[in-house]
Design brief:
heterodimer; A: mainly alpha; B: about 260 residues; alpha/beta; Rossmann fold; 4-stranded antiparallel β-sheet
Chain lengths: ~270, ~260
């Protein structure tokens, strides 16, 4: 592993961000709108529910965490898309850059961009709607970590799909968080799902995070076990996703797709 | 340099000064054989022309040397490093410029050179970037995005990227395509001077036979994935009864069988 080559991938993203409002704006804009929308919804629900249930901590907190997960995933995919959009595959992959260095660079770039989005979301949720992330206690750290790891894994799976199917497959990537949200127990417990869907939800690390968040808000015992399971699945997913990308890259080198990527197929 | 022409044996292609060796390389796309059992090598301080009509297998060969396309069979070594086994190490000694692979247009010249310099682990990178900007008259364009440069300027920027890591093997895929004659001559001179001063091996493809005659010490003619003939571009036309390299090229493209018969005789 060469840190310099990994850093080159991160630096490239920084250069692009620095000179481009259109790249910086989406890092926080859509998430901020989400937080504002759900902030008002939860405020309204708190006023009409007439119970001790705190919608801000549960629903708004969940939306914030889900948006963070989404930003992590998009952070990986967007950095990869920069090479697709600039038709830069030949230059990048004909260099000494190794696949682990490339993926690590995408992950580091994602940390920077998603952290920026997270800070903006937290500021809005805290100062406009009174959400206190400290209400989750020290467990906030593993909550974020598990979502981060799964966001990375899903991002790598997404770019593997695009590498295999061509630039147009980008449109498969953007809806992935929306497709997963119903199964990830973001807004309701896994038990709400039909029994035949629940095993699928249990395969998704975010479901353990959001079940854990609800348990903390409800004052139940600390969901350490849930988080360990979610974390283990997320780590395994990262290994599987990295293997998938490497396999897709080998396929692209074998078939000539890297050199003729815009053609989407060599057959 | 030797080829897989009848006079040569692929086992004898390597020597102490060899920078590039291809042994029995084949590339199949399904039922189609794009490159058909070619073997050749290139020495340090040698500019080798890879010629042939469109679809002959030139770019496929270059892509295999660059490690972005895996051969179906055969091996490629750069400075005795097998690219299939030590891809990253082999590519550290290589670089390329091609009109179809411009640097990202949304980064400036200096930014691109820094990124690629880091990817190629260039020591004292800032000083090397300055050298390249100076050598290719790019100082004024240091902070200009590559996408807004003219064709000639983009070619010079691409060459600066191609030389930033002081490669021992340089792959030039039609480096002067789309340039006016004056800019093309300028680019040719820069590459030739660099290759001469640094004992670099260069593999050069072009459809400009004047250019090939001017810069290449040896050429390989590819047709339908095979090396048909090889030799000194200044002598080859006469050896095959043609008045110029261009006429020989046209014959290779239109009547490759007649060339095979001449070679066999």
């Amino acid at each position: 592993m060469s840190f310099q080559r990994t850093y080159a991938i991160v630096l490239r993203v920084f250069y692009l961000m620095r000179g481009s409002f259109t790249r910086v704006f989406p890092l926080f804009a859509w998430s901020a709108i989400d937080i504002i929308l759900w902030g008002f919804i939860t405020r309204y629900l708190n006023s009409v529910a007439q119970s001790n249930f705190n919608f801000v901590s549960t629903l708004l907190g969940a939306v914030l965490m889900w948006d963070f997960f989404t930003r992590v995933m998009y952070g990986v995919t967007t950095s990869f898309f920069e090479d697709v959009w600039a038709r830069n595959f030949l230059n990048i992959f004909a260099s000494p850059l190794k696949i682990p260095e490339y993926l690590t660079g995408l992950v580091l770039a994602s940390i920077l961009t998603s952290a920026f989005g997270l800070v903006i979301m937290v500021l809005i949720a805290t100062f406009l709607f009174g959400l206190s992330l400290f209400s989750y206690g020290i467990l906030l750290i593993p909550f974020i970590l598990v979502l981060f790891l799964f966001g990375i894994a899903l991002g790598i799976v997404a770019i593997s799909v695009v590498l295999r199917l061509g630039p147009a497959a980008e449109w498969f990537v953007w809806p992935i968080p929306s497709v997963l949200a119903p199964l990830a127990a973001v807004f309701y417990p896994v038990a709400t799902l039909p029994s035949w869907l629940q095993p699928l939800a249990r395969l998704l690390p975010p479901s353990y995070v959001f079940e854990g968040m609800r348990a903390v808000v409800a004052g139940h015992s600390e969901p350490i076990g849930l988080l360990l399971i979610g974390g283990a699945i997320a780590v395994a997913d990262i290994f599987l996703a990295s293997w998938l990308f490497k396999a897709m890259f080998s396929h692209a080198v074998r078939t000539g797709l890297i050199a003729r990527y815009s053609a989407e197929s060599t057959t | 340099m030797q080829s897989n022409s009848p006079a040569n044996n692929s086992k004898d292609v390597q020597s102490a000064k060899t920078v590039l060796t291809l042994r029995d390389i084949c590339k199949n796309y399904g039922e189609t054989r794009a490159v058909d059992n070619i073997s050749f090598s290139a020495q340090h301080n040698e500019i080798v022309g890879l010629l042939g009509p469109n679809g002959a297998g030139k770019t496929t060969t270059i892509n295999m040397i660059l490690g972005v396309l895996a051969p179906t069979s055969g091996s490629i070594t750069i400075d005795d490093i097998d690219i299939a086994k030590q891809r990253s190490k082999a590519l550290e000694r290589t670089n390329f410029a091609a009109v179809y692979a411009p640097m990202p247009g949304n980064l400036t010249v200096a930014q691109n050179l820094r990124i690629f310099g880091m990817l190629y682990s260039v020591a004292n990178l800032s000083a090397r970037i300055e050298e390249m900007l100076e050598a290719f008259d790019l100082k004024h364009f240091r902070n200009t995005r590559c996408g807004v440069l003219s064709s000639g300027e983009q070619t010079r920027a691409g060459l600066a990227k191609a030389l930033i890591n002081r490669p021992t093997l340089l792959l030039m895929d039609e480096p002067t395509a789309s340039l006016d004659p004056s800019a093309a001559r300028d680019i040719r001179e820069r590459i030739v001077n660099y290759a001469r001063d640094n004992a670099v091996g260069v593999l050069w493809t072009s459809h400009n036979m004047y250019e090939v005659t001017d810069v290449c010490s040896r050429v390989l003619f590819l047709s339908k994935g095979k090396i048909l003939i090889e030799g000194d571009p200044k002598l080859l036309p006469e050896e095959h009864g043609k008045s110029s390299l261009e006429e020989l090229f046209v014959t290779v493209a239109r009547e490759p069988l007649s060339i095979r018969e001449t070679e066999a005789a």
